Amino acid sequence: MPSNTGGEMEVMKGYRITGGNPLSGAVPIHGAKNAVLPILAAAAVTGDCEIAGCPDLSDVEASCRILECLGVETRRVGDRLFTKRVSEGEPVIPKRWMSAMRSSILFLGGVLARYHRAELWLPGGCSLGPRPIDLHLTALRKMGATLREEENALFCEAPHGLHGARIRLPFPSVGATETVLIAGSLACGESRLLGAAREPEIDDLIAFLKTCGAHIEKESEDSILIEGREQLSGGRHTVIPDRIAAATYLAAAAVTGGEVTVCCRPDHLAAPLDLFRAAGCRVMKSESAVTLSAPRRLLGMGSVVTLPYPAFPTDLGAVFMAAALKADGITAFTETIFKNRFRHVEELRRMGADITVMGNTAVVAGVPKLFGSRVRCTDLRGGAAVALAALGAEGESEILEISHIERGYEAFIPRLRRLGARIEPLE
Asked: How many Cα atoms within 13 Å fall on the side-chain side of residue 295?
């Protein structure tokens, strides 16, 4: 049975934000959280690796603790993370680390492929409502695994190892795509994945696995051929810049009427940049950077629908909602991925926001002013939205439970300060 020891990862933290100050300047962008986490899961079954551009996040720390349970030592030098297998480890992941983040389920495929069995708890993380792992489990069953669930624990076996399979995803799930890529790289035979997710983070995981000797070929945008290998080597890889973090700092300029430059891949931000332009912002792109210059007051953005890449991402819905709060006009946000993406709405209302929620749609009517208030971060992206709203509000806001933000944004507060934000820790 998986261990039930351990405690809560999060520490209650808070800051006082004084709004009304236009942000300006340039801010560095760390490696993508959504790319490095599956890469670390894959590192459980590769040789020794050097991963550059690895962000210093609490989710990364949780992944490193899981790797150590599996016999892989991790060492950080600046933004480089080194992994080295020092023991055989055990295919058992304690509840403490599984419950620390939702993406911990990504370890399942690799652990099954390596050990032919796995024991783990159902994953935790932000309370965004049900994010079923059925697609992960269905894919692994097609590859020869047997799985059973008991009291929120998963017991998985593949006595003869995983084998290749033809897998069609009914929805382009990022997590299920990553599970198949990792498991298929060590399965016996050939796997063909149809209906795969197309996010840039998928391509980054493929690049990492190929660096470690995996044979993977994209036959089309959503069709991937994986030829399994008996083992994978180590390798060196640099994680792509975090497109969600980049867009969040650009949104900070939009909220405050400032001008901010981020180093990123502009081609990964096509849909968000189009929306910034619709809001009246001036967007200037180079090969590796984007500068956003915001008007004194934004325009309503009309209808915003979250969909799989390359459409507008669910991880930016809350952030753009913060930008819409004082815009001239209406913006309607329709969430199609998660059921509980609007938990932050009540916190924004405390600042004077006019938001009406109807099912999976939140309609924002711009107001003349927002006012400082005492609010909390409800989850990672909702927390970022609350912080941005505070930057655009009059007076002081107290932001509590900011540890949610630290799951996905490296040095979030110092980087906002670098742009001119007035932020102090609460006593």
From this structure: 15
